[in-house]
Amino acid sequence: MALVGRNSSNWAICFFGILAYGAVAVPILHEFKPDNIHHIVNHSEAKAVLAASSNWENMNERMMPDVKLFMMLDNFSIIHSKSKEVRVVRDRINEYFGEKYPRSFTSNDVRYHVEKPEEFAAILDIYNRYPICELTIHPRVMRQLYRGQADRAAFAASLPGCRMPVCYNGDLRTVGEVRALEGRFPEVTHVMIGRGLVADPALARKLRGGKGTDREELTDFLAALYQGYTDFYQGQVPTAAQRMREVWFYLIHLFDDAEKLNKQLRRFRTPAEYERIQAEILASCPIRSNVQGDLV
Ligand SMILES: Cc1cc2nc3c(=O)[nH]c(=O)nc-3n(C[C@H](O)[C@H](O)[C@H](O)COP(=O)(O)O)c2cc1C
Fold first, then answer.
1. How many angstroms separate the alpha carbon of residue 167 from the centre of ligand 1?
2. pLDDT of amino acid 111
């Protein structure tokens, strides 16, 4: 897909859109003469051309006979399309987008082609060319999602090749695990903790030598979180309760003897049910000194 136009946010939107779609982007300098632009479009076998209006006014679509779609970069309108379907999709794009991503689009919806740890060496080669102040590495391949362990061996193999300071991320749940990681990789400048902090909200304090959490603190914390979600979702309490279910997916690992209540947590239907189960866990299940179990 050829892209002709000076720097603009629409240019960047198209460029990333083309890459995320999995097509090949052919950026063409906007200062080139029309003949040269036609030549590059034809030579690259581009099937679509996205052109800025200032370029398009001097271009001639008859000189690019194999192109199936011409679009205006200024406003994403269709100039000419050989397929009627494209017009339908363009007209209904917001509707389709809403159907596919009903809860909006997040970074998790973008899929990078990462299957083997060795692919990281090629990516690192690019990072090493730029003045990056710190690189966070979460050593898992995309296909793995959160299954299995973060690949510490792949991390150890990559570390000597990193020219910038490195932050480690992945599967740190306890003070002991963080200390062991620091001992094994003293050159690591920071660690990043994700699920471990949801599972044990006091973990960062413990790492600084402070105390673990207790029932009272957790009760206040969960109440504030529930209220925060309720406000965020403009008073929709059932949606806030759903978010709390996701928090408990990790937090449950901080409690002993919680199997039965955990099953109920996964199945509750109403905010009142959620509130009852949470109160019961807080009242009856002992708090562990360390999170236990896989956070998946
Ligand atoms: C529920 C959930 C949501 C996440 N959302 C994002 C996100 O929006 N952006 C992002 O870069 N990483 C996201 N991550 C990845 C985390 O930042 C982190 O890299 C990952 O959880 C590994 O660290 P951990 O083992 O300490 O959890 C998410 C992880 C989980 C479990």
1. 14
2. 53
